[in-house]
Amino acid sequence: MSRETTFPSAARAIAAPVRPSGAMVGALDEAIDSALSDARIVGCVLLVSDHGQIVFERAAGLADREAGRPMRTDTPFRYASVTKPITTMAALKLIEAGALSAEDPVEKWLPDFAPKTMDGTPGQINVARLMSHTAGLDYRFQQDSNGAYAQAGVSDGLDDADISLAENLVRIASIPLNCRPGSAWRYSVATDVLGGVVEAVTGKTLPRAMADLVTAPLGLTASFHARPGELATPYHDGETAPIRMTDVTEVSLPEYLGSAVRFDPSRIGRGSAFPSGGAGMAGTAHDVLRLLEAFREGDFLSAPRRQDASRIRVGAEAMAQGPGWGFSWTGAVLVDPAAANSTLSPGTVSWGGVYGHWWCIDHLRGRVGLLLTNTAYEGMLGLLPQAIAKALGS
């Protein structure tokens, strides 16, 4: 099922913003302008760094359409799955310190987390399988609306379930695994389980552990708690214009991805909602860029750990972002650019978030691109991230 390949990385920390001329800048501006004029998004922030130097920085559109609040480069967003690389970074820092091993069985740290396969065989999930999404777990939104996760009340970390992380792990473990761990790739709540492991290893709550291991050392403002009114207001795709998310909102996914995501925009402001290591943080675009640069280069994480993070763990059969894409510990990996119809370099790592985000690290070019929008799902799956990816690969 898997093959392991390492692609080189290069360069240094982020320097002062510089806005270059050229075709790439024009294509990036055009991509944003078209998305706004076509009413596909309400607002966005796009950052691009090249060998550690910011070469493109733009905030466009509105953070809140109804209030007329403009988007700013320091506007914070609900991250959704952009949280995942932060949680993975925390785990990698623990591995680097010798406090955790990628081969550790999850039961070593979470003794009650012992889901079984369909035939009752013990799952034998280890930390590496959580990070590569080969643990046999699932997401509720990928199942039928009345699937096993829905019946057990499993939270995807975005909804209105006011339960503890421990309770959500109990619910996840009560459902038989969909395959033998290590045998197939399936995007899942595995990073929420990884958050539980981080708690157990450190003896701290996940917010405290993440602050100590990642956000404070990197100088990030990202957090599991925020005042909803200070964040970019979330919207979802509509027939003629994006629709504002006011209360709990279910937004149907393309059929090939699942049923529907249940969003609760107020979740981030409630202390009763568990800290989701897979989807629960909020912060700015600059926070994310700083994190992605730490995966690409620098001394925050050693070169061997950075190579571990970007190595292909599941080949192109994963179709993680469509044909030609495999999966690493931090996101999809571009295995075959021709099959993917992509101009990005082989070994590029990329992922996004359902509130409307997309990012990539092109290791061979030394380039990082980050798009945060307030419009699901255009900012993650639509024409805008496709156009940005094409421009970054030019």
Descriptive key words:
eight-stranded antiparallel β-sheet; 13 helices; three-stranded mixed β-sheet; Beta-lactamase; 15 strands; 29% helix; 394 residues
Task: Describe the protein.
This protein has 394 residues and is of the alpha+beta class. It folds into two domains: 23-83 and 221-235 and 266-392, Beta-lactamase (3-Layer(aba) Sandwich); 87-92 and 99-218, DD-peptidase/beta-lactamase superfamily (Beta-lactamase). Helix content is 29%, strand content 16%. The protein contains 13 helices and 15 strands. The strands form four sheets. It has an eight-stranded antiparallel beta sheet, sandwiched between helices. Strands 6-5-15 form a three-stranded mixed beta sheet. A two-stranded antiparallel sheet has the order 4-9. Helix 1 (23-37) packs antiparallel against helix 13, helix 2 runs parallel beside helix 7 (190-202) and helix 2 (84-96) crosses helix 8 (206-218). It is globular. The two termini are 32 Å apart. Mean pLDDT is 94; it is low at 1-19.
Summarize, please.
The chain is an alpha+beta fold. 29% of the residues lie in helices and 16% in strands. The protein is built from 13 helices and 15 strands.
Give the arrangement of secondary structure elements.
Blueprint: H1 23-37, E1 43-50, E2 53-64, E3 69-70, E4 77-78, H2 84-96, H3 106-109, H4 127-132, H5 148-152, H6 165-173, H7 190-202, H8 206-218, E5 235-236, E6 243-244, E7 249-252, E8 260-263, E9 282-283, H9 285-296, H10 303-310, E10 325-327, E11 332-334, H11 337-340, E12 349-353, E13 357-362, E14 367-373, E15 375-376, H12 378-381, H13 383-392
Parallel strand pairs: 5-15
Antiparallel strand pairs: 1-2, 1-14, 2-3, 4-9, 5-6, 7-8, 10-11, 11-12, 12-13, 13-14
Helix pairs in contact: 1-13, 2-7, 2-8
